[in-house]
Design goal:
It is a single chain. This protein is mainly α. Helices cover 67% and strands 1% of the residues. The protein contains ten helices and two strands, in the order H-H-H-H-H-H-E-H-H-H-H-E. The protein has a two-stranded antiparallel ribbon.
Length: 335
């Protein structure tokens, strides 16, 4: 059994000053490890949306009535608070799991050799979005689940998913300059698709804020809009996104585009169809909580699939260094 290396005071100081650098000097993760770390951060950003939805759908939004403590006198939920307190406090604890996943992504990106600063920056961007969203989540509780703050909370999580998706994709690419795979007209169509998807998600938060699942078992303020009308607008936007996706697939087929954009567009179309079926079923069955939760998961998958379409429009080939062949004069000859 090998001897445990002695930790000097200099090592301890270096660890405290910059843990990521300290670890990077002593550990080199494989490329697959970096990819898995980035994927773990993305998965947890989706999980936190689903569990947050469970808090709302079970009426546990004020299970912990204050923040950062669960109650004025307790940091954690108590047995007297019942299941609502346990659900809300459990969701708060998952924030630490998300932080751990993002931290692993940062450390893995920083320790990888050669160091890619762009990946580390994407990891830190996720960290600061998580911190900002944690504070915003506390504000949501303190203002009694005001629907506008709840909507902002979800949209900021969507921003987190976007950054995590980009980092996951970048772990599978080099840092070479991007090379477009399609023309500008196709790129513009894709950005129209992205804009429509963002609008679809934003209107979805209004449907939530005006609808029956406000997040607490007591009466909670709703957005002062007609829920039926905004739901129909949400459905129209969904059909616009589906139409744009189908048009994009048709255009990519017509111009004989590379397989990556075509496959990512196909994936988005299938996710949209599944999400649409769930949306209509939940609407005509009086919004059962389970289907609403699945629909929230579908919203995250639609957003990820849309971003993957954008990221598939270019490639970053590996950088190769051309080594000049030796000239005839430099080649030694036999005597």
């Amino acid at each position: 059994m090998g001897r445990v290396p002695k930790v000097t005071r200099a090592d301890a100081t270096a660890l405290v000053r910059n843990p990521a650098v300290f670890i990077a000097e002593r550990w080199t993760p494989t490329h697959r490890t970096v990819q898995r770390a980035a994927l773990a951060a993305l998965v947890m950003s989706v999980v936190i949306v689903v569990t947050g939805g469970a808090v709302r759908l079970t009426g546990s939004g004020l299970g912990c009535p204050t923040w950062p403590k669960c109650t004025d006198n307790s940091l954690t939920a108590t047995s007297a608070m019942g299941v609502h307190g346990a659900i809300e406090f459990g969701n708060r604890m998952l924030t630490y799991v998300l932080c751990a996943a993002v931290g692993w992504a940062i450390v893995a990106a920083r320790a990888h050799k050669p160091w890619r600063r762009s990946l580390t920056r994407l990891g830190w961007a996720q960290f600061w979005v998580v911190m900002g969203n944690a504070v915003l989540g506390g504000i949501v509780v303190l203002v009694g689940l005001n629907p506008y703050t709840v909507a902002a909370h979800f949209l900021l999580t969507s921003a987190l998913i976007a950054v995590a998706t980009v980092m996951w994709q970048r772990t599978r690419e080099s840092d070479a300059p991007p090379r477009p795979l399609v023309g500008k007209a196709v790129q513009q169509l894709v950005w129209f698709l992205v804009a429509a998807t963002v609008l679809l998600i934003a209107v979805g938060t209004v449907v939530t804020g005006a609808g029956p699942h406000a997040g607490d078992s007591s009466d909670v303020e709703r957005m002062p809009v007609n829920w039926e009308d905004v739901t129909k607008l949400h459905a129209v936007l969904a059909w616009i996104v589906v139409t744009l996706t189908f048009a994009l697939w048709f255009v990519l087929k017509a111009v004989d585009s590379p397989k990556a954009p075509l496959h990512r567009t196909r994936d988005l179309f299938l996710v949209l169809l599944a999400q649409g079926v769930i949306g209509y079923v939940q609407y005509f069955t009086d919004l059962p909580e389970v289907l609403v939760g699945v629909h929230m998961l579908g919203s995250c998958l639609v957003w990820i699939a849309t971003l993957r379409v954008v990221l598939s429009l270019r490639e970053r080939p590996e950088v190769t260094v051309d080594v000049p062949e030796p000239s005839a004069e430099a080649v030694p000859t036999r005597a």
